[in-house]
User: What shape does this take?
Amino acid sequence: MTAPMPDSFPPGSSLNGTPLSAPPAGCPAHATGPDGVQRLYGPAASEDPAGLYERLRRDHGPVAPVLLEGDVPAWLVIGYNEVLEVARSPRRFSRDGRNWAAWQEGHVGNGSPIAPVLLWGPDCTHQDGDVHQRLRRAVNESLDRFDRRGLRRHVQRYAHGLIDRFAADGQAEVLSQYAQQLPMLALTTVLGLPDEEGPRLVEASRQLLIGTEKAVTADAYIQGALRTLVARKHEDPGHDLASWLVGHPADLSDEEVVHHLRLVLIAGNETTTNLIVNTLRVVLTHPKFRGSLHGGRMTLPAAVEQVLWDEPPIAVCPGGFATLDVELGGRAVAKGDVLLLGLAAANADPAVRPTPGAPMNGNRSHLAFTSGPHECPGQDIGRAITQTAIEVLLARLPDLGLTVGPDGLSWTASTWSRHLDELPVRFGPRPPEEAADDLEGAEGRVPPDGAERREEDGAGGADGAAGGERVRRHAPGTQGATPRGRRGLLALLRRR
Ligand code: HEM
Assistant: This one.
């Protein structure tokens, strides 16, 4: 591809983790590599990802050359239509990392920080064609069997339990005390794990995300728990993902079932945490938004979709490896080049959204879940967990407010995503018993549309779009190692 490599070092050379071609962190020159190609990693890139995407769009149009860790060249696709084109053209853009020229030529090895995200692995994210379809059909059909209302009831129960722990304190840090816990507890139920496994998995996944030496032990713990689960479900099947995968006609081996249960846990946990906390932040920092939520003018499902447009939990995800020389967005992409989907950037593409940050009124044609054969199969479960989490929290603590102004919040960004570091809140202290007694009444204080829809439509709930339809993609207007210590969700997805 056109992004050149430095002459003096083999591609990917590094010293103590710092690319040899890179100037020291903090130096303005750190933002770009040799020949001025933009780095998509490092302090300069993580400071203001949205500004970076806009500069790339201005300078390069819908497909921009960038450098990944180790100054490995890649294309970042930031045009809305171009992201759709890549995501929906699996023959031209394979998900199998063995088609990556940089890997074939030995420039990216297993030790590279980008290897877990981009190199081949056994789960369906790295497969194409019939192999992908077989695994994906098993995952889709098993997830589709869920009793959505039952799932919401479980989420409500876990949400109340978490709130009980801090309701009397009058203050909380809702990222760590709520949003980081609830999705894993819910996914424990989805998988068919016993309730008591939830807190242990929350802790193990936290260790995984922190990425220390404990991460290996934590991953081994998760895989061990999943192997035990699979063995148990052979003997005693239930109404859960593990049992349905084990019994699926696609005839997955036990190892395949374990890989896909782990994929669901990791793919669903961090993303849903981010969606909950980002939606809460928007609700709490924009009084008008909260006002309209309570006044019934803006539904909670619409608020969640707005956040999926403006702050998608995964900002950049692998888009594939070109299987032939191909033109994309005016660029000559060579066979073997890697393409990344810039989901956050594409959602802000002026071609489909001329007014930045414009209200989208519940429009679901954003790219937060991508599109095509790999489009997220758990999106409606993620929406259901998110909406239920926020409904219950606002109902229990209706006077919830931030303890810092919007400028007091901080984020940590990686190549792949951007995370709030914490969300401190205060509220009138309420004894857990009082809060619990209040629950029936509290349901009535939930944002009216959201509450009414909870059991009815999955409006955006777990049943998907009203009418249970899968999301249709139309361009709007045409349609109908960090403080949290993460290299990002996608790195974990592929770590094994
Ligand atoms: C609401 C938060 C969520 C967001 C923003 C999200 C986003 C994504 C994205 C961007 C991808 C990559 C798609 C691609 O490679 O083209 C993905 C894949 C995936 N997600 Fe989600 N996800 C969320 C929740 C969930 C949940 C709750 C589950 C499971 C219950 C889940 C299961 C998966 C799986 C299995 C894949 C791999 C699909 C494949 O490669 O074929 N996700 N998700």
